[in-house]
Amino acid sequence: MTSLLDTIDYPQQLRQLDRRQLAQLAQELRLFLIESVARTGGHLASNLGVVELTIALHYVFNTPDDKLVWDVGHQTYPHKILTGRRDKMQSLRKPQGIAGFPRRDESVYDTFGTGHSSTSISAALGMAVTAQKTGSGRRSVAIIGDGAMTAGMAFEALNNAGSMDANLLVILNDNDMSISNNVGALNKYLAKLLSSRFYGTVRKSGKKVLSAVPPMMEFAKRAEEHVKGMVMPGTLFEEFGFNYIGPIDGHDLNALIDTLHNIKELNGPQFLHIVTQKGKGFEPAEDNPNKFHGVGKFDPANGNAINASTVKTYTEVFGEWLVDMAAADQRLVGITPAMCDGSGLNAFAGAYPDRYFDVGIAEQHALTFAAGMACDGLKPVVAIYSTFLQRAYDQLIHDIALQNLPVLLAIDRAGLVGADGPTHAGSFDLAYLRCIPNIVIMTPSNEDECRKMLTTGFQYQGVSAVRYPRGSGTGAPIERALTPIEIGKGRVARNGEKVAILAFGSMLAPALQAAETTGATVADMRFVKPIDTELIKQLANTHAYIVTVEENCIMGGAGSAVMEALQTMQKDISQPVRTLCLGLPDQFIEHGVHETMLSECGLDSQGIADAIAKLIT
Prior knowledge:
The chain is of the alpha/beta class. It has a seven-stranded mixed sheet with strand order 9-8-10-11-13-12-17, with helices on both faces. It has a five-stranded parallel sheet with strand order 2-3-4-6-5, sandwiched between helices. Strands 14-16-15-18-19 form a five-stranded mixed sheet, sandwiched between helices. Helix 4 runs parallel beside helix 12 (253-264). The longest helix has 19 residues, at 22-40. The radius of gyration is 27 Å and the shape is elongated. Mean pLDDT is 91; it is low at 177-183 and 227-231.
């Protein structure tokens, strides 16, 4: 059989196919996805679930003139394959390769860059209003998953869009439920009917006639909602001002294409509800979609991981600590914004289901929810990625820190994150946390330190943060006791002379390696706030050079804290001291291999040694 996929480089060619050929194309695209991601790693289950939807969208809409805005973007691999990047999929998430998320500078078909959730409706609405104002006639489509609908921003956008008459289509990709019996012939018929021009005309004419008789208008409105509500869950979206259509089977190409064709002819805000299956077409991913949400390299024949690491990750260290601490303190509750797997809460959720709270993709709510619990005597631990904590900054300041509440932030994915790239990098947390009053900030240099710091933060009667990197640490032995450390105290990890390297967190290991060739003293600072001013003073009085190293942006980060401390203690330092701050440069750092990225930023042992050599010459 001739491969259709090999003939499709851009959607213009897709639109030339006979509709009867699209099922074959979907089958080929799904197989290509499985084999491609097996070689590169990446997001799989979410992409397998939108194969038919992606084909239908590009088949019906005149992309790239019509705008497709994908929410989160971890389901855009089929979109990339059909928009000129099929041959580049082998470079997915690799250095100088294509990104795992939409990028405006990568393709004209990527209309909006993303990586975080719940932004699609807002962005697509902005495009729809622009099309309306310029008279371009372009259509704007937001594709959002059911998980992203848990965020308040999505509903803010719906509320705004429903009060406008811009031609916006929102597609809800509902993959959290099986395709039940009502998503069958009746619903296909209703979707066609409700998306048809005839229904829209009758509906509009009826409103015009009945508006002269307000009681009849209200009766008709309620009757319509009642009839719709009996067969579909659309009343909520109708209340926002959308014309609700669905739910329909998101794997039925004919139903999708017919419905999209009809919707394309309608004016005003439209809402299409489709039901899909994550991992569709690959049995291991269908059986365990969470496991195959984001994967490393695997065997496409059976889904088994290839070269899986056996070294314990920081995420696993946190997960074990959480279970142990929960056993020791009944007040502990664990909270995550839809990142149970990624944040290591699975064991805790199984052992203490009544103390585990997944609040959905709602970071702002997660923090204020934790604040409310802390007000009444519980001890919340919020497990969250550094990049996602950014979305709840006001709640951290206003609801937690201002009230000095005992909430522990377990901040995963601090620093660079390799293949996920700049949307997921934790490059800024030390800077944006350090300026907040009442907060204690800790940076563990190995797995055992991480466990001790988590205990320290949990026992602290105020807001605290432990930020740790993605992946494995140094392999340090872990003491299973729940032992805290003294707040605000660092330690000297290596005695040397002339140069003192003040390392924060993950930078201790390369700093120690650099010290072997430079003869430097190395301090594991442990705390960014409160900073250990006594240790800084001691090192400044015994060394001519102070070098700070952090896997965080330089501006406002841990090095800045050291410089500020040195400035305030000038009268207590007996000699001139030259200083240097090493960290992430003032730019968004592209995806790649973590070790290579650190090297390019001068944060590996050689880069640190070279910077010291340049400083002292």
